[in-house]
Amino acid sequence: MKDDNNIIIKKLKERGVTIKDIAELVIFLQKDYHKITYEQCEKEILKVINKKEAIHAILVGIALDEMAERKMLDQEINDIILEDKSLFGLDEVLALSIVNMHGSIALTNFGYLDKIKPTIIGKVNNDKNSCNTFLDDIIAAIAASTASRIAHSYKE
């Protein structure tokens, strides 16, 4: 479990994203519903990113961003990814593979985060020195899925 998490944490950190950054998003999503700590968020984030499906999606998304930066893809695909074309959609589809493991709350939270792009999502989305076409959606998916896990763990 720890080894898989370490790989993902390392890859995210290499791209300028920390678990604390994602925890801030989770707290943002849950602030009107549950009072939670960073520690609680981080514990749940690690559970989300430890699933094999999530690991694979995160690694593939980051690899595609990095390959586009290095111009390693077919030029047409490379340009689409570098420019984060609005009708591309595969970045969202890849992120939804994480979201779909965590229910409808995760899905609606993902759409909301993808639309408003708060905190670290906006930062990586607007970074002109890196390609983060997949990364911003991956971050949103992890945060949305974590918020869903937290929402489901509270008794009504």
Describe the structure.
The chain has 156 residues and is mainly α. It has one domain: PgpA-like (YutG-like). The longest helix is centred in the last third of the chain and has 19 residues. The protein is globular, with a radius of gyration of 15 Å. The protein starts with a helix and ends with a helix. The model has no long low-confidence stretch (mean pLDDT 95).
- Overall CATH architecture: Orthogonal Bundle
Which consecutive residue ranges, at least 5 long each, have pLDDT under 50? none
Q: Quickly count the helices.
A: 9
- End-to-end separation in angstroms reads 31 Å
Described by the principal axes of the CA atoms, the overall outline is: globular
* Helix and strand composition category: mainly alpha
Under CATH at level 1, the class stands as Mainly Alpha
Beta content: under 5%
Looking at CATH, the homologous superfamily is: PgpA-like
CATH topology: YutG-like
Radius of gyration: 15 Å
Let me know the average pLDDT.
95
Helix content: over 70%
Tell me the domain tally: 1
